[in-house]
Design brief:
By secondary structure, the protein is mostly beta strands. Helix content is 0%, strand content 56%.
Length: 172
């Protein structure tokens, strides 16, 4: 693996973009988000969207497909699926204002190749008290778009990132 880029997440914003990190040099990438926290009282999930290689705009179409298994200490486990969403949910755990950090690892396959993109992820977060959560997901984008970057965003538009680090590796 080769570290391509590592940076601190912007604070006080709903999303953080990392453009121009995917290329023809690698077929597989590992994206690690660690220590992501919120800076207000809105607890929410930390998600992933991809940035188009053509202009670094976010892929916001209903092209994200996924299956997600959610394990929650305080309630029943659940499964969610979508074949036409605008992001991959809970790829990087979740955030709140209680300084309980979340994070996750996303393995991304062929994002730059102008054909189908595949993803696998696992993430965790502590939602206060005994409420630990873990998410396991698989996803795909079935289209011919080339992607060159990633967006970490929060479910709730009123939520803000309070800290964290993103590291992106090319896998040989």
């Amino acid at each position: 693996m080769k570290l391509i880029k590592a940076e601190t997440l912007d604070t006080g914003v709903n999303f953080h973009d990392v453009p121009d990190v995917f290329s023809a040099d690698y077929k597989e990438y590992m994206i690690v988000v660690s220590g992501i926290v919120g800076n207000e009282s809105t607890a929410t999930g930390a998600n992933c969207r991809l940035l188009k290689a053509s202009d670094d705009s976010v892929e916001s179409g209903t092209v994200y497909e996924y299956g997600l298994y959610s394990l929650k200490a305080e309630t029943s486990n659940s499964v969610s699926r979508s074949q036409n969403d605008t992001r991959w949910f809970n790829t990087f755990g979740g955030v709140d204002d209680g300084a309980q950090a979340g994070g996750g690892v996303l393995n991304l396959f062929c994002p730059f190749d102008s054909h189908n993109t595949f993803a696998m992820w696992n993430s965790t977060n502590h939602a206060g008290g005994p409420n630990f959560r873990s998410y396991w997901g698989k996803g795909a984008i079935i289209n011919t778009t080339s992607y060159s970057g990633i967006r970490v965003d929060l479910n709730e538009t009123s939520s803000r990132i309070g800290g964290g680090v993103i590291s992106i590796y090319g896998v040989c």
